[in-house]
Structures are given as structure tokens and as C-alpha cells.
Amino acid sequence: MTEKGTGGVSTPRTPLKSILTAKAKGIPHDVDGTVKAQTLEELHSLQRKRSAPNTPLQGTPTAFVNLSEDERQRLQLQSISASLASGTRGTGPKVVRGDPGGCKSRAVTHVEHHHVEAPVISVSDSALKFTHVLYNLSPGELYEQALKYEKGSFLTSSGAIATLSGAKTGRSPRDKRVVIDDITQDELWWGKGSPNIEMDEHTFMVNRERAVDYLNSLEKVFVNDQFLNWDPKNRIKVRIVSCRAYHSLFMHNMCIRPTIEELENFGTPDFTIYNAGQFPCNRYTHYMTSSTSIDINLTRKEMVILGTQYAGEMKKGLFSLMHYLMPKRQILSLHSGCNMGKDGDVALFFGLSGTGKTTLSTDHNRFLIGDDEHCWSDDGVSNIEGGCYAKCIDLSKEKEPDIWNAIKFGTVLENVVFDEHTREVDYTDKSVTENTRAAYPIEFIPNAKIPCVGPHPKNVILLACDAFGVLPPVSKLSLAQTMYHFISGYTALVAGTVDDIKEPTATFSSCFGAAFLMLHPTKYAAMLAEKMQKHGATGWLVNTGWCGGSYGTGNRIKLSYTRKIIDSIHSGNLSNATYEKTKVFGLEIPSEIEGVPAEILRPENAWANKEAYKNTLLKLAGLFKNNFETFMEYKIEEGNKLTEEIRAAGPIF
Length: 653
Known about the structure:
Elements: E1 2-4, E2 10-12, H1 40-47, H2 69-83, E3 94-97, H3 125-128, E4 130-135, H4 139-149, E5 154-155, E6 161-163, E7 176-179, H5 184-187, E8 198-199, H6 201-217, E9 220-228, E10 236-242, H7 245-254, H8 260-264, E11 271-276, E12 293-297, E13 302-306, H9 312-328, E14 332-335, E15 337-340, E16 346-350, H10 357-361, E17 367-370, E18 373-377, E19 380-383, E20 387-391, H11 401-406, E21 412-414, E22 417-418, E23 425-426, E24 437-441, E25 453-454, E26 457-464, E27 474-477, H12 479-488, E28 490-493, E29 505-508, H13 521-535, E30 538-543, E31 546-547, E32 555-556, H14 559-571, E33 579-581, E34 588-590, H15 598-601, H16 603-606, H17 610-628, H18 641-648
Parallel strand pairs: 3-4, 4-9, 6-21, 7-8, 7-12, 10-11, 11-13, 16-26, 26-30
Antiparallel strand pairs: 1-2, 5-6, 9-10, 12-13, 14-18, 15-16, 15-17, 18-19, 19-25, 20-24, 21-24, 22-23, 27-30, 28-29, 31-32, 33-34
Catalytic activity: oxaloacetate + ATP = phosphoenolpyruvate + ADP + CO2
Protein name: phosphoenolpyruvate carboxykinase (ATP)
Pfam families: PEPCK_ATP
């Protein structure tokens, strides 16, 4: 083509010169900088790169570390195949690493696991298929799996993923079973008051077979290899096999996440969970009372979940395991929050739902070691978990800024309701359940102490929301009183928390977590007393409930007053205060606390009707006494001396 110049003469256009570009890392680029790839698969492969080791291995390297990548993956698959092996077949399933619906798998070696003790039976269809293993996926990978394949999974405006746990939106304690055998028969707490409902070995194996068969029938399963306990000397290796990305991400957040190097040297797990919660148990199976069953076999070191998709069953199942394993090592397992001051002073917070345990243990002026589960060893305290599992009902940025800000990419939101267009979560909406939850890694909390360990506790704080309004806002406890109130685990339910509650109702949960105990409560109490005495810790009873009257007539103790009390405990001011003893419960009450009205420190002074106060006090004392009778049949030591000391520390009237 030609074009006319100003003089009307046509001139030829100068052709563009070829532009040569340098080759970056051997990949030719076009003039506009786009990568040249022969296929879409090749282009997509350029988008992702392999993770590189970023932390040094500790200790002496083992032979496993020096293996090739293919050999390491083969051994990992062999271990997973062994975990999924049936109790009646000669081999484990054929497993392949990678997503069957995604890009090409990294390793496609199938592995058979020979179970020499089991009889070999005829081959079945399930034995001919491959099971794809999605191993220790990252949050981003699990998001993709959940959003693509799991109905009810949505990305919210904060970046967190919202999921549904199905028909079960809470734990099913009546469906929890523990295998009774020659070992556990004498070791565990059975009978009246115990959360441990027995089942035999045969029934466990029936349920295990049902769960394993279901998992092996799936096209893919998720496998998490992770740790419990930040104390490196007492770390427990756990494997979780599940069928939902939601469950895998939940446990990724809640357990301690291994480094790439630690995974390479993971080996055989100490405990395995088979979560086949989408599949029901057989109601005709012995010991079953519904289509749900959560079964723990401490001898086999396994847990089976059938008929419930509520993720909290896995978390609390592992906590029950730690309640069994740790005392065997003379380590006390605790259902508590834990924080540490800048000077290294550690405080433990015990309390049932609604007492303020999470709120009071989360303090901007102190480091958070953990919010729920801990161990107390000869070296100090350590968090069992790698994450937090916070309640979300009525959550607001003003009241709980740390939890609010932790709900971001990587966080699992359970059973919340959100706007279908903006995807903004309405934390006040109880349409699905009141038990809405957020599960996130502990490092999402700005003042979390990593690693989550600390020195021996200086203060042990027992929280009670006394809706009867007769317990003082704070009391200093003797060692025997600490044990008594620790075993009792008291709080009160009020209208609005449980259906059909019209007036305050006392509730007791041993060691502030009876549902998860494996041993008798007095064993944990004796260990707590021994450690407190050895390390000079002080016990406190803090009432976060009512004063000036019971629920309905009195007033809730202001959170600002409770924080002043907790601050005085941390600073040591309350240890040096002047005290006077109350009647009936015999509690030591400080005469004054800076920033707290003196009239509420002694409960009877805040009640206008003194006779009503006295009657209510005696009523609560009677409830304590009746509850404690359950534990008097058990002897802690020879001669029952310690048990009598604890009993004497209770109310006298």
C-alpha cells in the first residue's frame, strides 16, 4: 500500500523490522512478553512451581532423608495404603498421588500393602481400582477442591471459605464409644458420670471395616499427616484420612503443620483417624444407638467416624487421646486457655461455655499460647493444637477484633449464613445453628507466641458464670479448694442458652471438660495439685456472672471489672491484698481492688434482700455437694487422705 505525502506523491511504507528478544531461562518470548508454550497444559505447568525446602532439618538425618523423591513418595504411599488396609484382606488399596480430575499426577506408582496376619479372600471390584490420594494439600488447593466439588462451599467477602457440616452441627456425645479391653478396662474411667461408653473390639472392627470400605470406594481421599503438641519431646504424629476438603482444611488449621522436611521423615503415624462421616453406621451393629458412631480404640491407636460430618469430632477425639497418652508420661493435659506476660508469667484459664475463657485469655498486653487445649510437663506448658476454633455467634469487630481479623483466606467458617450477592457473613443469623464456628491457624492472631510453649504457670484461674449471683467476683483458693472447684467444673445456664430454661440452672463438668476425659477426674486434679505445689502456682475462682441478685433481678458483672481483676492477678497485686473469709463456701475475698467497686466484692452486700441471698447461697451449696458425691467413691491415694482433704474444701452448712 502507499499513502500520499503533503505533495500528493505516493511513497512506499517502510516495513517493520523483526524484533529479536533474549531467551529467559531457555523460554522464548514474543515481542509483547508473553510466554511461548506448545500446549495449554505446558502453559499451566509454567504457572506452578514446586515447593522448595525452607527450614533446616533438626537432629541427625535418617536414611529416609537421603532417598530420592520418587522413593520418598513411594514410601509415603505405602504408609497410606497400610493405613487404609482392610482387616480381612491381604493387601491395602492401590493408591495414586494426585487429583483424578486435575492435572497430571506427580506420582502414579501404585502400592500394595501386605497384611500377613489376615486371610486372603477373593478379589473384589474395589481391589481393582485406584484410590487417588490428595496428600497434605495447601489451603489454596483445598479451596479449589471444596468450591468445585462440595455443595455448600462458598467464598465469603473476607476470603474465608464457608462450609456446611450437614445434619449434625455439633458433637454427638451419646454416640461416642471407647473400646474396652484388657488394658483399658482398668485404666479408664467407666460407669456413673463417665463420658466413656464402652464397645468391644469386634464391633470396633466392624465399624472400621465399614469406614475403610467406604473411603476405598471413593475416587479420591484426603490425607493429612500432622502433629499434636508444640513440646518437641512429647509430639504425637497423627494421620487423618477424610473424604471432604472441608475436613482436610479444618485439620490443617487445627493441628500443627509440619514443614516439608518433617513430612519427608514422618514415617508411621502414632494415631489415625478414619473420617467416613458422610456414610452412616449400621444401626443393627451391636452398641449402636443411631446412624452416628464415633469410636476410639486406644490399643489400635485408631478412631473411626461414621454418620456425622461435624469437624469438631476430630478435634475433640484427638483431645481425648491426649487425655490418655499424656498422663502416662506424667504430663497433665488441660482443657484451658493460656497466655503469657512480657515478663514470662504464664496464666491458665479454665471455664465452660459462656464464662469468658476465650475473651479473657486473649489479651493485647499478653502473648497467646493457646485458646483451648494444653499440656503441663516438667518443662512448662505447651499448646496441643496449631489453631483456634472460635465461636462466631454474634461476633463483632468491636467486641472481638482479633477473632474478626483472623477470619480471612485460609479460615474455615462452619454453618454461617451470608448474603448471596455480597457474600458478607451475618454472624447474628442462627438459621443453620447457634453453634457457628471459625477454624484458623493460631498465627492469624497477631500476639500469638510461636512456638506455642511457655514456662510453668504462675496463676491458675477457674472461671464460673454464676447466674445465682452468690459467688464473689474473685476468690483466692487454697490448694485443696482449687482441686475441689477444678473437679466440680461449675457454671450456670441461663434463659436463651438452652431451650426451656426459665431460671438459673447449675451445670457441672469435671475438670471443665468432662466430655473428653479418659481417666477419673481426681487423677487429673491430683496432678494439677502436685504441679501447682511444686512450681508455686496460685489458684483463683473468678465469677463472670451476676451480682446483687440472681439472673433476672441482679446485674451481670461488667467485663471491665473482670478485666481489672484479671490484671490484678497478673500483676501480683492480689497476692499481697488483705483477705476475709466467706461463710458456707469458705472463700477468701480481697478487701479492695483498684478500679472495682468495693460493694460487689462481697456478694451479700450487693443484695437488697439478705434472706433471699442466704437461701440462694444454701441452694447452690447443696447442688455442689450433691454433684461431688459422685467422686467420693474413688480413692486418689492410699488411705483416701487426699480425697477427704478435697471434700473438706467444699461448702460447709
